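Work Package 4 report. The design task specified in the project plan requires that, given a folded chain encoded as structure tokens, an amino acid be chosen for each position. We show below one input record used in the internal validation round.
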């Protein structure tokens, strides 16, 4: 605790018990769907998948919000954040009673999920009131609030029988909202926050709060918590269903049995804190993992019949765990999981006293995601294997991996310490820093980076920069492939039994671009905060979610349109990657090579669209993954396709690329910057001008890529256009990768001007071809459009560093040359990323414009005329601002002014 005075015992107790009661109510609300969900399922006639999504939605929201709620608690204080969170959760829970469709229930469930974010608020708040020697016990007592799950399991079934599920929602909503008001009135600001406010000290920046998240140690904690907390939440949701189906008990008996597990996994958390203070977290974690392995082995063993050939004939016997031994075993498992939850969080306030919100938020978020992911995986395993106990086998494997990693980390650290150094090891070795700066160098972080120094570049820099570039390119290629996979999937949905309208299909083609462009706004600022290596790893790994989701959704024609819409939005994760990838690569190369490097990264990354449009039509024609991939779908003409392969085919490549990014990429110290430092670009006029131009180039490329397959099929139904549509994105990607040198040589502004002239002529050609019904002309002029968009994508990005070097020299004339260089590079990277975000919206508006135009006029021509008018505006702006005599780039691109306004160091 870093406060300037020691709080009184009364204040400590007030903070602890108010927080514990609040967390108990929050947890009771967070798990409300485990009881009322069954009634809602029957009322709406939901499928198993829809039911699973409904009960998992609050868990997902509660998990994802933990990181930001932890940061807000550090900035605004636990008293305010905790109170607001409970009041908003109460409103969302009450809104359940007004829901009248599956969609409105899902929306309300998103708000109910805010209850799950309460944990990290309480950890950050309570830890500030206690000294390190007592934090384990205090946080253990607070963690007993998990018993709220048992409260819901005990009480909700009886309230449900008496007043229906609406009565449960109303009572739980009133309870948590009233507690939010009580907490605000009775609680006090924690000592650190109060002292900071009195002294006028600014809250820590996002970069400072997120800095520890780069430590491998933090992610190891997260894996532990994925089991002890995520496994607890998953079982609390899964066990009622399991007990009803396996042991044929009613919902009240299942609720009571699950409550016993939830009780043991909650109330003993305080005891786990005491044990961690007394014996050390290492010992407690060994106990947790060791006994959990034993109990999970018992639970995972399926009912089995044995026949032994004895000397007197066959001897038969069977093994099966009955109901009450099952309840006793889960109770014991919950006990050790509760100890483990306390042990994991025992030393976050000790090792990261100034980052409890961010570190604890990440660990809590990963743990909460376990509660979302595991029930879904439980269902998938049950479908694949047909064995109910497969869920416990999965948990057994997670514990085995966690225990092995923890033990190897401890042994590696102990082998490095000898004599006196061994005596100085922390009391809890598994929580010690993996990278000790006194003994270990972190080779992935580069503090000395001078790409403008010819000697440094030749001897060291070029090799490192190219390695990062060639790891980045396949990661970006996969991101584009997943982002645009709907452009092919959508065109096939009607043929495999999905009765969606044309407008719905165009929406599915457009939604990935909408979410991808929006995510780019946030991704734009992530590399300077998290580091390029970590962010590339995380953003690439996130592609597994939509890739696997598509694979499962397309196998069932009963899958509702809403699910497809959600998966289409999740494909936007791939679109967001472009902004962070381009910002990251721009830091590695000298000014003279930036244009070509970014053209290669973006151009070959854009190639993912073409690769996808070429590969997916091939892989869906064969059972590539055998029985694991699922059965084929029957076509209306009697043929068969494996549409799930459109998603599954990317999974192994995503895994490989994620590993390559973590192992082979680097972080640059010079690239670090807080959001506040980067936000200066919003005051730069040229940022917004370049956004306009990039919408014209990249927005057109990604929009045409998304809409070209469906438009071709609608405009020329007699032509099997899916065989050829991959050529458009291929031409655009290769022209971008192959023409970066042209902009470096003659100037990006001049190239961009002629690009828009070429696009105007090409659109006129497409319009003419549609009017006369010529597929050959339509296809040829679209290929020209794709070519010009690729050239323009490279030229616009080449313009940005040149513009900002000149602007920063003018705006920051009082700074020295090295500071001007760093500032211009930082702003250039931020603008490149932000313009890519705005440009991505073209991928939404172009397919949607096609759909609107066809719906209103019966033809896409109106949309094409609108695109042509926009290109005329872009051409005029390029000339007026940059390339005319007196324009910003006129003299530079003609060699009449220095091309590098800021000298190298």
């Amino acid at each position: 605790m870093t406060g300037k005075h020691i709080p009184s015992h009364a204040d400590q107790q007030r903070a602890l018990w108010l927080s514990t009661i609040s967390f108990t109510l929050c947890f009771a609300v967070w798990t409300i769907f485990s009881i009322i969900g069954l009634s809602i399922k029957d009322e709406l006639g939901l499928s198993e998948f829809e039911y699973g999504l409904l009960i998992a939605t609050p868990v997902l929201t509660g998990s994802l919000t933990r990181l930001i709620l932890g940061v807000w608690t550090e900035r605004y204080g636990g008293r305010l954040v905790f109170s607001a969170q409970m009041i908003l959760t109460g409103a969302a829970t009450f809104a359940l009673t007004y829901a009248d469709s599956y969609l409105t229930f899902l929306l309300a469930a998103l708000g109910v999920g805010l209850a799950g974010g309460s944990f990290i608020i309480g950890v950050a708040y309570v830890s500030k009131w206690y000294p390190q020697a007592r934090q384990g016990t205090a946080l253990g007592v607070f963690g007993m609030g998990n018993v709220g799950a048992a409260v819901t399991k005990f009480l909700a079934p009886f309230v449900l029988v008496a007043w229906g599920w609406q009565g449960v929602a109303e009572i739980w909503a009133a309870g948590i909202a009233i507690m939010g008001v009580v907490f605000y009135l009775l609680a006090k600001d924690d000592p650190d926050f109060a002292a900071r406010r009195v002294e006028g000290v600014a809250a820590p920046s996002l970069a400072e709060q997120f800095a520890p998240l780069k430590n491998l140690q933090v992610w190891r904690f997260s894996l532990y918590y994925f089991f002890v907390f995520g496994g607890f939440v998953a079982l609390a949701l899964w066990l009622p269903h399991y007990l009803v189906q396996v042991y044929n008990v009613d919902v009240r008996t299942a609720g009571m049995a699950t409550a016993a597990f939830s009780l043991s996994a909650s109330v003993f958390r305080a005891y786990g804190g005491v044990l961690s203070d007394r014996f050390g977290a290492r010992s407690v974690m060994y106990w947790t993992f060791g006994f959990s392995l034993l109990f999970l082995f018992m639970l995972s063993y399926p009912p089995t019949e044995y026949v032994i050939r004895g000397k007197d004939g066959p001897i038969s016997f069977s093994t099966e765990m009955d109901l009450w031994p099952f309840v006793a075993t889960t109770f014991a498992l919950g006990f050790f999981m509760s100890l483990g939850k306390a042990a994991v969080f025992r030393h976050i306030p000790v090792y990261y006293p100034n980052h409890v919100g961010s570190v604890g938020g990440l660990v809590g978020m990963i743990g909460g995601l376990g509660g979302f992911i595991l029930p879904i995986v439980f269902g998938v395993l049950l479908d694949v294997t047909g064995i109910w106990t497969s869920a416990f086998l999965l948990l057994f494997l997670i514990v085995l991996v966690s225990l092995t990693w923890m033990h190897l980390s401890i042994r590696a650290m102990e082998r490095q310490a000898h004599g006196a150094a061994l005596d100085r090891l922390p009391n809890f070795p598994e929580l010690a820093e993996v990278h000790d700066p006194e003994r270990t160098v972190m080779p992935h972080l580069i503090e000395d980076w001078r790409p403008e120094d010819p000697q440094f570049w030749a001897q060291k820099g070029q090799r490192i920069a190219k390695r990062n570039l060639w790891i980045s390119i396949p990661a970006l290629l996969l991101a584009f492939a997943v982002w645009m996979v709907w452009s092919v999937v959508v065109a096939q949905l009607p043929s495999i039994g999905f009765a969606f309208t044309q407008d719905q299909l165009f929406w599915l083609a457009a939604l990935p671009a909408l979410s991808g462009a929006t995510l780019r706004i946030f991704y734009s600022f992530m590399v300077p905060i998290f580091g390029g290596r970590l962010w590339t790893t995380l953003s690439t790994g996130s592609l597994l979610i939509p890739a696997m989701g598509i694979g499962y959704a397309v196998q069932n024609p009963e899958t509702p349109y809403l699910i497809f819409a959600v998966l289409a939005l999740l494909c936007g994760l791939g679109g967001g990657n472009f902004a962070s990838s381009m910002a990251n690569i721009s830091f590695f190369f000298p000014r003279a090579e930036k244009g070509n490097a970014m053209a290669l990264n973006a151009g070959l990354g854009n190639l993912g669209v073409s690769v996808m449009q070429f590969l997916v039509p091939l892989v869906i024609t064969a059972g590539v993954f055998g029985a694991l991939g699922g059965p084929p779908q029957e076509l209306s003409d009697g043929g068969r396709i494996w549409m799930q392969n459109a998603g599954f085919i990317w999974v192994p490549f995503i895994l490989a690329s994620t590993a390559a990014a973590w192992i082979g990429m680097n972080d640059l110290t010079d690239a670090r910057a807080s959001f506040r430092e980067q936000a200066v670009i919003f005051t730069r006029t040229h940022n917004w001008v370049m956004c306009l131009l990039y919408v014209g180039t990249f927005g057109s490329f990604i929009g045409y890529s998304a809409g070209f397959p469906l438009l071709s099929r609608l405009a020329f139904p007699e032509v099997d256009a899916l065989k050829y549509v991959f050529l458009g994105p291929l031409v655009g990607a290769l022209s971008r990768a192959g023409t970066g040198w042209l902009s470096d040589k003659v100037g990006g502004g001049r190239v961009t001007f002629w690009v828009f002239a070429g696009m105007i002529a090409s659109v006129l050609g497409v319009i003419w071809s549609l009017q006369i019904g010529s597929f050959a002309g339509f296809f040829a002029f679209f290929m020209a459009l794709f070519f010009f968009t690729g050239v323009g994508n490279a030229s616009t990005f080449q313009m940005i560093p040149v513009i900002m070097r000149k602007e920063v020299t003018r705006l920051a004339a009082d700074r020295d040359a090295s500071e001007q260089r760093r500032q211009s590079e930082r702003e250039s990277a931020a603008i490149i990323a932000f313009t890519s975000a705005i440009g991505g919206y073209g991928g939404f508006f172009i397919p949607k414009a096609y759909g609107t135009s066809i719906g209103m006029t019966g033809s896409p021509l109106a949309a094409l005329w609108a695109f042509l008018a926009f290109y005329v505006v872009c051409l005029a702006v390029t000339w007026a601002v940059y390339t005319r005599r007196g324009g910003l780039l006129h003299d530079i691109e003609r060699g009449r002014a220095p091309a590098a306004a800021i000298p190298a160091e």
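Residues 148-186 form the longest helix (39 residues). Validation will be extended to a larger panel in the next phase.
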